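Lab notebook: predicted structure, single chain.

Context: the supervisor wants predicted structures on file for every construct in the current expression panel, including those that have not yet been purified. This is the next one on the list. No modifications to the sequence; it matches the entry in the shared construct table.
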Amino acid sequence: MSFSYGRAVRAIPGPSMIPDRVLNAMHRAAPNIYEGELVEMTDSIRADLRRVARTDGSVAMYIGNGHAMWEASLANIARPGDRVLALFSGRFGRGWAETARRMGIEVETLDFGFRGEMEPGRIEDALRADRDRRIRAVLSTQTDTASSALTDVTALRAAMDAAGHPALLAIDCVASLGSDRFEMDAWGADVMISACQKGLMTPPGVAFTFQNARALEAAVPCASPYWDWQPRVAPSRFYELFNGTAPTHHLYGLREALDMILREEGLAKVWARHEVFAGAVAAAVEAWGAEGALELNIPDPAHRSRAVTTIRTGPGDASRIRTWCEEIAGVTLGIGLEAPGSDPASMFRIAHMGHLNPPTLLGTLATVETALDALAIAHGRGAVEAASRVIAEAHRRGIAVSKNMEPHVALG
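Prediction complete. Output recorded below exactly as produced.
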């Protein structure tokens, strides 16, 4: 018997659940693509994307996804034969590295393991060893969506500075932008890539690269007219922003989502909410793991994503849990993703990014616990209670937002 005949919940790490307001904003006839409302709205979107990224730099917008932005960023910062240093903490750093290899770029790698944390000393040593300064960029993910590892970008920047290396620092924030705190300028990132379908709560289809003045100055001549930053950063005509027709309806949805993030909730409060929800999921998993095999993939809270949590189970149990949750209860959990040190059939992921509140999150956790009971998978009790206590405690103390967490960029 299935109980899934209500509104389905997608607890996957993107596309995240889309607010009805965003969908309604997109439900309209095609607009004028030459002048008027769409042009003016796109200017406001570009300014607000820079606010979310916390940068005074520029943004280039593309019709694409995160994988497309791997290629877009590389096409502007490295030529075939150039070298980059790619850092792995799961699967997606490997993907960026593989894209570079297929573009003819030499790739040096540092693998910190599927359950490990970034080691700044190894990064500093690798850069010091590059005596000819051939490495043009260091590539890293803030949140690896497969492992749910969180990179300390400030420590990475400090390691590069300690080595005195001139490489650009490029960060993949596809999973983390609008969920985990990210300070592009203050933390010293030169390039950042992201997309609209996760923390920005918009259907997949629009993606971005952000670049500071140093990155623009160091950019190589881009062989691809589509990936080239320059026309998108400083267009002379509207169509150059997208190298052709704009993704009109996505822009209406994105405008609504940015209003919700920046003008209604506030970016700092968005970050705080995601931190509370990540703590609630961790508390639930720790309760389940008191009796049984379930455990958090990333042991140290300081190195766990605030956008997604990867959970390890006994052999094959994750697949059974996901199937039960989706087919019987209408909750879709994230699959385990294959990477060295991982068993996809024994991992699942709970996303807690974007348009999320306690009923949705606690309902997801209660559904997982029901699946554990229904499938007779050993687990500890009290997970939902543990998660609810985290949220209740956050309410009691107030989600404190200090002034120095508010967006610092004052754009037009």
